[in-house]
From TrEMBL:
This is Vitamin B12-dependent ribonucleotide reductase. Residues 701-725 are annotated as: Disordered. It comes from Actinomadura graeca. Keywords: Cobalamin, Cobalt, Disulfide bond, DNA synthesis, Nucleotide-binding, Oxidoreductase. It is an enzyme of class 1 (oxidoreductase). It catalyses: a 2'-deoxyribonucleoside 5'-diphosphate + [thioredoxin]-disulfide + H2O = a ribonucleoside 5'-diphosphate + [thioredoxin]-dithiol. Belongs to the ribonucleoside diphosphate reductase class-2 family. It comes from the Bacteria.
Length: 933
């Protein structure tokens, strides 16, 4: 986007240096970027679906017509400033972008970044174009604060420090509170605090860092970040040689035991329940900082010394392997602690003369000096995939230049929560450019996430981004000077630049796309080294991979950060109201890339719409299954697939990667040990795991809280009553064929509607199969008459897989994974209302056709009415209400396909289930996050 000016036309910056000349890439001379778009007015009304309350309402907001309803809702409710309902409230995306970009442009011009006012104007237009076209986004604090009367805080990530004094500990509490109040998160290392096995000067025993964590945890649980909807995010780190490390490792695991005991005693321990507040240490992510010495001791099954904080003497010797296993066991039980690899982190540290890197931000992607901060921005990678299937390298390079320039300008005008953080950040100017939509880019280009080709493409694009960022940093240093701490760290910084360039040389490309990216990256690193040698660098750090939760939704990204696609089905809100479940739009794009014809694509997409996965999809070749592997579902990516992707990109990042390695519920402690060990061997800086269903606290149910029983009420036993069918009842007989195996199904109903009996004929009379089917039929029929809802059986038996399986002769159910799968799909189509079927992913042929055309199949059933009250009154018993299966988020869509509950919290604002974003969670409905934004 920009280039260094030469000649007499160049504007002189500070110290007589030349300014930057800015060229147009996206915009047209004489045309404002807003004028090239079609804008439309929309009404934003956001509700909590659980109780129907309105959380937010603003009508008549203005956005480009291609922005999704979700993106519009999130930007309007999160980022527009001014009191709602007053003339001071922002109502257009133009106002928001103008407010932010104007501050960047004015500051850059005033500080001598640009060669002329004309270059500043081009910078202004290019930045506005990129933002309104969703090419990238700044992190949330920029949108919250820049251009307002509030402090101009632009950083989302902070690292604090604490020493072994009560004054320092109390200052830590205060600093965290200020940062949480400002809408950001913080991390710190507690290893300077004396252990509980060391003496105080008064002769008493020290409390130890774990005791002080309690106070900080309570503070974090009380303060809502920014006065908004998410709790404070924090990271607590302890070195592996600290004498209290075993206690630290087990803190959260012990609290999980407490939750189990309280839950079993009848206390409300649901996530958000009234009694969960008694549980400690839940507001922080915990990580153990391990050294190479410790990991080598684990390899050798040797001993390892735990050292006093004040003297460095060994106070206790432990078996390294046993301590390592304790970490894995605690993570198996509750997902904490994570692991950070200290020697790897500091081997890539550009400022070793200033001090070591001891901690990270809450999501583990920002790692730098104590008392520092980092402002982030993320590029939407999918925007650079052309219709011809190539990656637009030139525009990606220019956009990266533009973003780095803008981010560095922001440090010049930014405010900070403490003076110590302000001083360090201004002296070292840490930046964090990253990207989102990598998973979607890989799928759209026909690359499996867990494949050599996928990792090669990811490595090449990450190397190019960081190479451009540091090359631009050197160019800015030529204009306004290197960062203040550069002189004392020059050799260390240049050493790390050479390490990045050497890692780039080791990348092995496999196809034309990653080859083009790698060629460009190699050129950028060569220029970076040359310019850095001459001018130094403006920024101590340049890149990392953040969760991109809220801003990912703002950019309409399918995938966040470095993550793969969550699943092939997603939840989509419709502009006219309502919602529908759709197959990710990346899927047909990938199928076209893989060479499938339109008819084949439609059939595969229809299969995914019904089943939620690609296994046995008609016409899809088995070697292409891996392209559609996701984080969850039928073909979930293996834990080591996630680790290998992190390892492919880590050598090209200044910081680290916000990502959680998901592991199945059946994973063992040994599996976690392997992941932690391989993360070290592969050169990661940090790693966290999450084993499905390892947490006890579950999201609140839609039914709400149970009422307390009255003291005077005598206990009564409630038993279900069988409601028998009359001797004469309506029935339907269905002849079916599954992969050539023929059978008959007779389904009888109550006269007032409702299935009550099923009999199946399959196999020869007297055969074992026929006898088993008779017994199965009686069991199902009796359970229906005792009140078991049909949808429960449908959930359990659809997608059951055994032979015979394959094509059927039913136009509504083209493929079946077994006879059971077919039977219960047919029963659902014949006896369940549309809403319940849709939640289970079961549709007729006509309904699927409407979905393919972008229409809402619910319109087919608008006239259908069922008087449930009359049915209930006519029944001999009142059946318990079945839980609602209607999906309100992509996570709930995935749950309906998997037939089990996913471990994800409910949004405190709108009640929907959140989805993972790096090591945090984000709400698709309102943009709230559980960690850094």
């Amino acid at each position: 986007m920009t280039e260094t000016v030469s000649g007499s036309a160049a504007r002189r910056g500070k110290g007589g240096r030349k300014g930057l000349k800015v060229e147009r890439i996206f915009t047209t001379p004489g045309v404002h970027p807003y004028d090239e778009l079609r804008w439309e007015r929309r009404d934003v009304v956001m509700t909590n679906w659980r109780d129907g309350s309105v959380n937010f309402e603003q009508r008549g907001v203005e956005f480009p017509d291609f922005w999704s309803l979700n993106a519009v809702n999130i930007v309007t409710s999160k980022y527009f400033r001014g009191a709602v309902g007053t003339p001071r409230r922002e109502w257009s995306l133009k106002q928001l972008v103008d407010r932010v970009v104007q501050k960047y442009t004015e500051t850059g011009l005033r500080q001598g970044y640009f060669a002329s006012p004309e270059d500043a104007e081009i910078f202004d237009h290019e930045l506005k174009y990129a933002l309104v076209h969703q090419l990238f986004s700044f992190n949330s604090p920029v949108w919250f604060n820049v251009g307002t009367k509030s402090p101009q805080q632009v950083s989302a990530c902070f690292i604090l420090s604490v020493d072994d004094t009560m004054e320092s500990i109390l200052e830590w509490y205060k600093e965290e509170g200020v940062i949480f109040k400002g809408g950001s998160g913080a991390g710190l290392n507690l290893s300077r605090i004396r252990s509980s096995k060391e003496l105080l000067s008064s002769g008493g025993t020290a409390s130890g860092p774990v005791s002080f964590m309690r106070g900080a945890d309570a503070s974090a649980g009380t303060i809502k970040s920014g006065g908004a909807t998410r709790r404070a995010a924090k990271m607590v780190v302890l070195d592996v040689d600290h004498p209290d490390v075993a206690e630290f490792i087990q803190t959260k695991a012990r609290e999980e035991d407490k939750i189990r005991a309280l839950r079993d005693a009848g206390f409300d321990m649901d996530l958000g329940g009234k009694d969960i507040g008694s549980v400690q240490y839940q507001n922080a992510n915990n990580s153990v900082r391990v050294s190479d010495e410790f990991m080598h001791a684990v390899e050798a099954d040797g001993s390892f010394g735990l050292r006093a904080r004040m003297t460095g003497e060994v106070v206790e010797t432990v078996k390294a392997k046993e301590l390592f296993r304790l970490m894995a066991k605690a993570a198996w039980e509750c997902a904490d602690p994570g692991i950070q690899y200290d020697d790897t982190i500091n081997a890539w540290h550009t400022n070793p003369e200033t001090g070591r890197i001891t901690a990270s931000n809450p999501c583990s992607e920002y790692m730098s000096l104590d008392n520092s901060s980092c402002n982030l921005a993320s590029i939407n990678l999918l925007k650079f995939l052309t219709d011809a299937g190539t990656f637009d390298v030139a525009k990606f390079v220019k956009l990266t230049e533009l973003i780095i320039t803008a981010m560095d300008v922001s440090i010049t005008f930014a405010d900070f929560p403490t003076e110590k953080i302000a001083e360090t950040t201004r002296d070292y100017r840490q930046l964090g450019i990253g990207y989102a939509n990598l998973g979607a880019l890989l799928m759209a280009t026909g690359h499996a996430y867990d494949s050599e080709g996928g990792r090669s493409l990811a490595a090449a694009v990450t190397s190019l981004m960081t190479g451009v960022a540091y090359r631009r940093s050197a160019e800015i240093a030529a204009v306004v000077g290197p960062y203040a701490g550069y002189a004392r760290n020059a050799e260390g910084h240049k050493r790390v630049m050479r390490k990045h360039a050497a890692a780039n040389d080791d990348v092995r490309t496999l196809d034309e796309m990653d080859k083009a990216l790698h060629v460009a990256a190699t050129k950028q690193w060569q220029e970076c080294l040359k310019l850095g040698e001459k001018h130094g660098y403006r920024n101590a750090q340049a890149s990392l991979l953040a969760p991109t939760g809220t801003i990912g939704l703002m950019m309409d990204c399918d995938t966040t950060g470095i993550e793969p696609d969550l699943a092939l089905m997603k939840f989509k809100k419709l502009v006219g109201g309502g919602s529908m479940q759709i197959v990710n739009q990346t899927v047909p794009r990938a199928l076209r890339k893989l060479g499938y014809q339109q008819e084949q694509i439609e059939a595969i997409v229809e299969f995914i719409s019904e089943h939620g996965h690609v296994v046995d999809a008609p016409g899809l070749r088995h070697e292409h299954y891996e392209v559609f592997d996701c984080a969850m579902g039928e073909r979930a990516i293996s834990p080591m697939g996630h680790v290998r992707m992190m390892a492919a990109t880590q050598p090209f990042l200044s910081g680290a990667i916000s990502k959680t390695v998901n592991m199945p519920e059946q994973a063992t402690i040994e599996d976690i040990e392997k992941v932690y060990y391989e993360g070290w061997k592969l050169g990661l800086k940090a790693l966290a795991i999450y084993r499905d269903n390892c947490k006890v606290g579950q999201p609140l149910s839609a039914a709400g809280k149970k009422e307390e029983p009255k003291a005077e009420a005598a206990p009564t036993e409630v038993r279900p009553v069988r409601r028998r069918l009359p001797k004469q009842r309506p029935a339907t007989v269905t002849r079916f064929s599954v992969a050539g195996a023929e059978g008959y199904m007779t389904a009888s109903s109550y006269p007032d509607d409702g299935l009550g009996e099923v009999f199946l004929k399959l196999g020869k009379q007297g055969s074992t199969l026929a006898g088993v089917m008779d017994a199965f039929s009686m069991a199902i029929s009796i359970s229906l008459q005792y009140g078991v809802p049909l949808e429960t059986w449908v959930e359990k038996f659809t997608n059951m897989r055994f032979e015979p399986a394959g094509m059927t002769d039913d136009p509504d159910i083209r493929m079946a994974t077994s006879v059971m799968d077919y039977i219960f799909r047919r029963l659902a189509l014949d006896h369940l209302p549309y809403d319940e079927r849709a939640a289970l992913g079961i549709f007729t042929a006509d309904e699927r056709a409407m979905q393919a055309n972008g229409e809402d199949p619910a319109a087919l059933h608008a006239e259908e009415e069922v008087d449930h009250e009359t049915l209930a009154q006519s029944a001999e018993i009142t059946r318990p209400a079945a839980p609602s299966h209607e999906a309100h988020s992509s996570m709930e869509v995935i749950e309906s396909r998997q037939g089990r509950t996913a471990d994800a919290p409910l949004c405190l604002t709108c009640g929907t289930k959140m989805r993972p974003a790096g090591s945090c969670y984000v709400c698709e409905g309102c943009g709230s996050t559980s960690g850094c934004s």
